[in-house]
Specification:
Elements: H1 11-19, H2 32-38, E1 72-74, H3 89-105, E2 108-112, H4 118-132, H5 136-139, E3 151-153, E4 157-158, E5 161-162, E6 166-171, E7 176-179, E8 189-192, H6 203-228, E9 246-252, E10 264-267, E11 273-278, E12 284-287, E13 294-296, E14 304-308, H7 310-315, E15 325-327, E16 335-342, E17 349-350, E18 368-369, H8 370-380
Parallel strand pairs: 1-2
Antiparallel strand pairs: 2-14, 3-6, 4-5, 6-9, 7-8, 9-16, 10-15, 11-14, 11-16, 12-13, 12-15, 17-18
This protein binds N-oxalylglycine and nickel (II) ion (NI).
Length: 397
């Protein structure tokens, strides 16, 4: 079997780039004979479509930089049932300071002793593996479409380039209410409904259990972030009533051209917080704020990776940044990950919180409606767009 790269991109350039990556042994095997062997047999991705090929400046680096710097934060004090602000004042203050520091320096951190049971995580991981092992035909029975963006999908675009992945999405609230279209004048709403496959039969139950556990962690983190901005702990909780949060099961199959394609292209998460479970393969890269270098997040067993999304960037009036990240794939091993996107309700207006704005530090954004942005982003995952995707910088004051 050969890798066929459909010739929208001049072949000469592609083959030149293929041959210029001889030192990539840890990321992929560049010997074409071996690479061909690694092609997954009956995979639809055996033939590489040029839609997957990243522009040269966005391709993975040839060497991996693994950072020690991304903080690991221990949340164990939050698990004790009788935690009190008075009694545990010092410990709490130091935890809040760690969160603040991580949000400012990286926009990313990992948490351990987070209170989510390992059994619950292992169950959803296993169910996800069973689901993605099904035939395409079976998975497409729960395929998402433009009207209902929940379910299975294998042709997602990030910044107009196809991601080397397949996903299964489900919302926390079922149904979840969102605007029908992203047009600001269109006030019509729609309901997103979860679709569950026949197999594995316990997928629904396992996912619903997982969401219950993750909700508790989401609010703990939201409250810590709120405190770290000098606000009352529950200042932001109200925005998440009737939330549009969703969970994504990600499967990144082995990729014959891991130096040309990405599992997920560079992007920022639009919502409040993301809580990611990754397996032991690794591949998530974060853009380091100090120098713009792509840094690999080292898998830590049973930890969750947390990042601040665009919504918190705006609420904090740029005190915290939503940091760009991407996923690098490899030719040898498939990878699984499960992000939980903690998002506000569709009718939330997102703007800098008034307590964080004053004459010296005026609001850096005009308020925008979350539902409109959410729907806009969802639609852009389906279609190639000529214009740039809607981003928070479009609302800069
Ligand atoms: C995402 C994402 C990272 C990963 O889906 O937004 O950044 O490691 N995923 O799968
Ligand atoms: Ni992301």
């Amino acid at each position: 079997m050969f890798i066929i790269i459909k010739p929208q991109q001049p072949e000469a350039i592609l083959w030149q780039s293929l041959s210029s990556v001889q030192n990539l042994s840890h990321l992929c095997d560049c010997d074409s004979k071996r690479r061909t062997q690694h092609l997954p047999n009956n995979s639809a991705m055996g033939e590489v479509d040029s839609a997957f090929i990243q522009a040269i400046e966005h391709r993975p680096k040839l060497t991996i930089t693994e950072a020690e710097g991304i903080p690991v934060i221990d949340l164990s004090i939050l698990n004790s049932p009788d935690i009190s602000i008075e009694k545990d004042c010092k410990k709490l203050a130091s935890l809040v300071a760690e969160v603040k520091d991580a949000c400012k320096k990286w926009g990313f951190f990992q948490v351990i002793n987070h209170g989510v049971s390992l059994e619950c995580r292992e169950k959803i991981d296993l169910a996800s593996r069973k689901f993605f092992a099904l035939s395409k035909e079976e998975k497409r029975k729960v395929k998402r479409d433009e009207l209902n963006s929940m379910g299975y999908y294998d042709t997602e675009l990030t910044k107009n380039v196809r991601d080397w992945k397949e996903v299964f999405d489900f919302t926390v609230e079922n149904p979840t209410i969102t605007p029908l279209s992203h047009e600001p004048d269109d006030k019509e709403l729609k309901e997103l409904h979860n679709q569950w496959p026949e197999y594995p039969p316990d997928l629904r139950e396992v996912c619903e259990e997982y969401v219950q556990e993750l909700q508790k962690l989401s609010y703990k983190l939201l409250e810590l972030i709120s405190l770290s901005l000098g606000l009352p702990a529950k200042r932001m909780n109200g925005f998440f009533k009737d939330q549009t949060s969703f969970v994504r099961l990600n499967h990144y199959p082995p990729c014959p051209v891991p130096h040309l394609a990405l599992g997920v292209g560079r992007h920022k998460d639009a919502g409040g917080l993301t809580i990611l479970a990754q397996d032991d393969i690794g591949g998530l890269e974060v853009k380091r704020k100090t120098d713009g270098e792509w840094i690999r997040v080292k898998p830590t067993p049973d930890a969750y990776i947390i990042n601040v999304g665009d919504t918190i960037q705006v609420w904090s009036n740029d005190e915290y940044d939503s940091v760009e990240h991407r996923v690098v794939v490899n030719s040898e091993r498939e990878r699984f990950s499960i992000p939980f996107f903690f998002n506000p309700s569709h009718d939330t207006w997102i703007g800098p919180l008034e307590e964080l704005v004053n004459e010296k530090n005026p609001a850096k954004y005009k308020a925008y409606n979350w539902g409109m942005l959410f729907t806009h982003r969802k639609n852009s995952n389906f279609k190639k767009r000529d214009d740039e995707n809607l981003q928070i910088h479009h609302f800069k004051a």
